[in-house]
Amino acid sequence: MFLNCNLFLSLIRLREEDDDSQTKPSETVDMKESSSNTINVSQTRVRGFSFHPTEVSRSSEDEQDAYSFVKDAIKTVSKAAIKKGRKKVSPQSSPSLASTPAKCRRNADPALPLTSGSERRWRTEDEPDLQPKLFPFKPARNPGPQLDAQKNYTPLEVFQLFFSKDVVDTLCLNTNKNAQRRQKQRFKEPWRTISVEEMYKYLSIIIYMGLLNVHNVSDYWVENRLYGIPFCRSVMTMSRFRAITYSLHMSDPAEDEENDKKKGTAGYDQLMRIKPLKDQILEACRTLYHPFQNLSIDELMVRSKSRNCLKKSFESEHERYGFKVYVLADSRNGYTWDFNIFVGKNPSASGKGDSYDAVMNLLNVPCLGTGYHIYLNKDFTSATLLRDLYRKHLGACGTIREQYMGLSGVQENSMAPTTKRGTINWLRDGELLFTKWMDARPVTMCSTIHKAFAEEQVQRRKQLEDGTWLTQSLPAPEQVKPYNLYVGGVDLCGSLIKCYSVAQKTMKWYKTFFFHFVDVAVVNSWLMHKDLAVTSSKKPMAQKQFREKLCSQLAGITPSGSVQEKRWEGHDEELSKQQVEQQYEQLMEQQYEKQGKWWVEQHYKFEQQCKQQNEIKTDQQFEEEREEEEREEEELEFGSMCCPVPTHDPTIVESWKKASVGRKNCRFCKQKTVWQCESCRVALCIIPERNCFRLWHINKDKKEHDSGE
């Protein structure tokens, strides 16, 4: 075989400079000139090939064969060099190659190359960056709860938006069918048909168990004084609660049997047993609330030890085993707007990976809108994903692994461990911005909604050689602070669920998801209650208080759907007059030990006066009157001046507590203060910003002067 050496060298240079072909026009050369020379190439070697010295053929057929052979050799050399990590060396000068067919060009990498016109080099924070194009925020609906803001919703009414009567009716129907199936399989526990009202009571006990944890479920029904938990005993018997738990089912058992026959085929649905309730809860989450601009996508673990192929192992979590759920949450409050359950590694529908498909399936643009900012972690972020989101008018930001950056042909910019902390390198690839920032370790990020550097500063602590710590300000990329603020939406959702989780031990994997759906419904209901309360300028309830009221209202549901107040067992009969007097005497004995004989005598005196006047004085009013009498007695006995003194004795208080111990509300501005008037015994502020001590006494003197006239 004949080989043209000039042709061979030109092909090597073309291979190495292929990435620069977008900015530099390809050079051409006359093939006749390059083919006029002959050379012995016995010393030229390519890995895996050996060439024998021959004379170069001038025929076109031989040149075409040589061209194909050299092209294959160059591909082999390039792959071997990349695998071994060696830097390819190109000759300093070589003749250019004539225009060749398009098939000789290298195919594009899976990650898209740099866009046309961008410079392939990393820049520093000293070089300015252009402001990226931001799409206007156009949500499909007004963000927030999609409810009447003027109406006062109770916790039960908000919860029933997720677990409506239709949802519970379907749950009861499938539970009754499963109980009948169990009876045919000779299970011994008795069963009677469950109704919607009884299912709501069952849910009230489930939510209550998340508030109060005991060692065994049977301890909730123990009647001894060590536990004394009357709520569960007043709602349902323990045998009935266990019977419902054993027979609980979310899908039709007949459809489950038909689906099990398809196991191992493409028609088998792994989530068949939870599909009815999952679809209903998911539709309610999307319909009742619309998220704000900043969203977070991450995976959430539903812990379980049941035997199922869907269960995953999480080495970074406290609970190692559970089910993986992809969640789209509002970064503002942690509201779960959408979720997908991971069903195993299957061939990607788009061919771009499971993480890519998970994000795209959660972002339903027609229902969501455009202009949203999506925050991701390194498990989901890739250059291909952010480009596709940008085409849908959605911005995104996240940490990224370097192999998913897609910067082919760009010199590697790995930061050494000795790089100065706070160093920033960035590179813009069209709409994508790649940044590398040295914090405690190198941080690589990709964004379509931020600039490279906007003079942002972060505070970091540094330990000096003498062991002391110093706080210093370091420059940071613009996307660091928004990312830290908004990426934790799913983590916030998980923490709210874990506070009062209703999850219980079970070997049935679908019951694990039932408890998870109850948790999602309760947390989303509480978050909607908070937004509605803020809109109507009311104080929202804490999550614990919300769950407590929800439990009591669910337990008092009547067949008509109204809430009925129900008294607990042990309090159905009114206390007798003798029992009331005994409890009152015990209370007075306790107060005698705490307050002394004078307090009890005065209390009896005021009690008689209140009975005559048909009114009851509160303990706070009693204490205020007592303090006022003591103050008048001290003024008459000693006489005191109006001067500021501390509300507590500073000699008996530790130095670091002097600014907070004994603080009272200022009588004039209602703010906390540690000063009071020695004569008037009134807490008053006396600081440079406000001198309430002077203003209050001026008003007091004016009132006394006016009353004297």
TrEMBL record:
Compositionally biased intervals (Polar residues): 34-45, 90-99
Region of interest (Disordered), residue spans: 17-46, 83-138
PiggyBac transposable element-derived protein domain segment(s): 154-526
Name of the molecule in the record: PiggyBac transposable element-derived protein domain-containing protein
Organism: Esox lucius
